Amino acid sequence: MSRSSRAMLPLRIYCICMIPLILLLRLSYADKQLSLSDWRFSIFPNEQITTSRWEWNTSKTPAQILSLPSSIGSSSEVSSRILHDLPLNEFAVEKDVTDPSSLLNVYLPQAPSPRFRQYIAKVVDISSNVEHAEKDVNRTFVASRPGLEVINIYGLHPGHQYSISVIGRRDGESELIKEESVIMDPVAPDFDSHNATVISSHTNITLRALKPEKAIQDTFRVSYVQMDPLKYFPKLDVHDIMEQRHIEIYLGNLSPGHDYNVSVTSLINEIEGKPWTGILTTSPLSPENVSVTDLNASCVQVAWSLPKRSGADRFSISYGPEKSDGRTNKLDVSSSETTADVCGNLQPGVTFVFTIVAQKRHETSEPSTITYTLKPKPPENLRVVVDYPKRKFRMTMDVPSEVESKVDECQVSIVTEGFETVDRKVGVEEARNSALTRRCSLFVDLQPGRRYEISAVTISDGAASNKLAKGFALQPAFDMKAFGLNLQEENSGLQLEWPNNELTRARLADIWQNIVGNDSSLHMRVDPQSRTSRWKEQSKQFESRPSDNEPLFVPNLRMGSCYKVQIYTVTKSGIVSSQRFEELHRMSAPSVNITTDEIAKVTAAFRVAIDTEKNVDADECAVSLIVLDMHGASVYDRSLRLSRQPAHVLLDGLRPYHKYTINAQVKCGNSGERSCAPKMRAMEQVTFQTRQDRPGPVQNLTVRALNPYSVQLSWFPPALANGIITHYIVGIHPMDEVDNDWSVNVGASPTHMDHTVDAIVDNFIGGLKYRMNVRAVTEAGEGDISAISDAVIIEMPLLPPPRPTTRIEILRNTVRSTGVTVRYSTAMFNTKHGLLRKYSLIVGEVTDNGRMNENWIFEHHNKTATWGQVQRFDLWPPYVAVESPVEPVRKFFPSRVISEVIGVDSTCEDIDAEVVCNGPLKAGAAYRFKLRMYTAPLLWTDSEYSEIVITEAAHSATTVGSVLIGLLVLFIASLLSAVVLFVWNKRNKSCPPTYGSAQSSKESQWAAVKMMMAERAADCLAKLGLDSQHAASSCANAANDAPPNGLTAPFGHHRRLH
Predict the structure, then answer these.
(1) What's the rounded Cα separation, in Å, for the pair 242 and 216?
(2) Which ranges does the record mark as transmembrane (predicted)?
(3) Among residues 323, 327, 320, 405, which one has the least CA distance to residue 369?
(4) Which residues contact 533 (CB under 8 A, 6 or more apart)?
(5) CA neighbours within 13 Å on the CB side: how many for 190?
(6) Please, what's the b/e burial string for 371-387 (b: 16 or more CB within 10 A of its CB; e: otherwise)?
(7) How deeply is 590 buried, as exposed, middle or buried, from its count of CB atoms within 10 A (0-12, 13-18, 19+)?
(8) Confidence bin at 458 (pLDDT 50/70/90)
């Protein structure tokens, strides 16, 4: 028990060590010895174990116990009193039945004693003939816990004698109750332990083991019995030698292969301990006459014989390769068998070691061993092939792979027709890896056409496989490539040509002599395969030799027909070569002619005819026609059976002005016939073009207004041009019925038929709505018009009218003090930006320097005033005097002149000031006039201002007339003076003037005239009494036609608000 486990016990065990116990009294029995009859055997349980003990028979007279005083330790003393009132049978010392060699039990009284509180058992080793070092130490034991009725004494040594003293204690005093001597049971050696050995042979068994440690015994008693058949042997006593640490027991005169029940018991003082018992077996006898026989390529049979009285109950067969250190294979066989079939993990051709042992339980006999080489696997595919580079026959055979069989070499035996035998051995050719089949090959001298018997075996470690035999007549060699033969189609036939190269022909001659045979010939056979209903073609066969030096030709074969061609060599004795050229050959397809007959806009006709009718198998052939358009799309795809009569083909549904290509292919044979592949001949393409037709509608027509009178049309050419588009017709339909329909031609570029076409069309009127369409034109006529839903409609934008290039004309003779007449032409009315809605006359008063009052325009946001609204100004701003509607016409042709009198309405003061009114002008004031035209209420344009005109002053009519007459006279006088001066100058040109005189005369004359005119004008003005500045202004009005700077008429988008 370990220290940790003892610490867990709930009770204390008080051990008193190294304290000498002085025995003062000795226990003796009075008058007579006790006998066993005074004791009875009782079995009773306690809390931990079931205990059996001998109890004193209380009916007898109790023995007197003399108590001898003893001292335990230095702190307590044992009373020397003798306890007469404690029965001795309650302190029995007995061996524990579970382990009588090391356990003792001391049984305490069942009822608690009033004299003792605790009991102690002291153990002292008193073995004799044992060295002091071998004795057990003195120990003291107490009950494991209070109230327990037994003291367990453990850890004693087997065979040792112990003195057991039972001591009672109370209040620090100890008293010896009982003392008894006990010899522990000895123990037998353990021959099953790892340090023991049991050696068995045929007739004896030797047992060897270490003796139990610290155990004492006198003798080892051995008992053994043969079990089957039952046989008893005398017991053996082996005396123990204390100095030896092991024991060896030998049992002889035993029978082989038998079981023996062996028991070994240790004794001391005639006390027997627990024996060791075991079943031991002697070794059986070894098998005899072991042999191995092949059953098949992967199994062998192992046989043996069994000696009499062998004693074996089974056999174990172990086998493995002789030259391998790998794990062996095992097979168990019952004792009734003398043969065993071994099939697992055997490799043909390998030498195996077979070992057989007889077994009886776990004992085995000496092994019986035999070495045997398994037959290798035989060769396969024994054949004779031609080695064309060596120009010899080579005999080859397949040898199993290294994984399947071990083969060292091959042996071949050849027997000729004359019974001559040739034996040859050849090594095995190694493969790339061990899993591939190997090969044996050797060159042999054989003659084509003769018979041979050939056998072959494989050999491994001297063991030969089963024989592979074959008898045959040697066939001549044949190979198209090695012979250099060339088969080709020629002139409606097949021609086989010999090689033309001298070196190749010499090589062929050598091949022919060695492996074909000089008396052999080359055969070519042609068999027709086509099935025709009219007549049956016969087979053709021809033969030749290299010495003929001419090609082999088979004539008169039909084009498109299928033939079976066979080429081979034949010996003189009629033996045909195993190798031959065999092919199903179809002759080339015939050619056809394709011609076009008639080509229209959407139809075309052509015909197909065979070039020649000679040697053509028309039943096997068909012509495939595919007609493609210019985009590669198929419009006709059909196959026609080839006939000797021309076939007519009509194509309809074609597209005008399109190029089409006729692709023809003659095909002989069916695609499903794998044996005889079809032959095809592609004919030259035939191209034609259909005639032109009216084009289709244009695509993606769009319109965009550029200004009020121009649009940009864009469209894509028709998808179906049906010809070369020469031009386009743009049709324009005014939807407001102001004008008639009209059209415009737009040119087309043949090089840009896949690009968008853009065209700009003019002569539109702003504000009107138009519908437009475009038609393409080819040589065949105008194309279709797009659907009404596809037509484009546009409403032209409005802008202010274009600015007139002329001004209002003032009639000078109509100038009055309150009015004046102006004149203008309808040529000033321009409808390019839209139809005119109305026009108005604008009157503006100007100052002496030609400026106008612009405050009204700034204050009223460009709003033109009326006559009534300008009366409050000293200088009238521009105002509307006359406003008239305009007839909505496209052109004002022919033009007409319109005169308007300004200032004729004297009732304007009586009407609303915001109403347009042609009220009177101011007398003696300067005015300018302009014309304003409207395309919309807010879209208008002004002409340039007219000349400045000054109304008459408020005088009589006579004064005004006199002024006018004076001005007229002044004008006439000035004109006459100019004429006279011109004539005079012209006359003087004929005479050369002197330097400086003539020029000075002219200048002086011209200055005099001007001075005269100025004086007369001054006199005129003086008579009239007018202001010189005012008169100068009036005169200037008659001569000045240009308006003053800075008084240009406004032009643009003006707003007129009322």
Answers:
(1) 8
(2) 963-984
(3) 320
(4) 619
(5) 7
(6) ebbbbbbbbeebebebe
(7) buried
(8) very high
- 288-373 CATH choice from 3.40.50.720, 3.40.605.10, 2.60.40.10, 2.50.20.10: 2.60.40.10
Which tokens hold the place of 580?
């031959």
The token pair at 908 is 């304007």
Fold entry, domain 380-473: Immunoglobulin-like (2.60.40)
> Which among 552, 668, 677, 678 has a CA at the least distance from the CA of 615?
668
Sequence ranges of the domains in the chain = 3-183, 197-281, 288-373, 380-473, 480-586, 598-689, 699-795, 809-948, 957-988+1006-1039
CA 387 vs CA 349, 398, 517: distances in Å: 31, 17, 15
Residue 151 has pLDDT above 70, yes or no: yes
pLDDT in tens, 925-940: 999 999 999 999 889 9
Strands 865-866 and 879-885: parallel
Q: Which CATH architecture group holds 480-586? A: Sandwich (2.60)
| Whether this model's pTM surpasses 0.70 | no
**Six token digits for residue 792:** 């484009």
Dihedral over alpha carbons 390, 392, 398, 403 (to 10 degrees)? -30
Check if 288-373 and 699-795 are the same fold.
yes
The whole-angstrom separation of Cα 480 and Cα 583 is 12
Return the CATH number of the domain spanning residue range 809-948.
2.60.40
Q: Which CATH architecture has domain 598-689?
A: Sandwich (2.60)
| pLDDT tens-place string over residues 556-613 | 888 888 999 999 999 988 899 988 999 999 888 888 899 988 899 889 999 998 887 6
Tokens of 991: 């005479």
CATH architecture assignment, domain 197-281: Sandwich (2.60)
- Could you tell me which residues are beta bridge partners of residue 930? 842
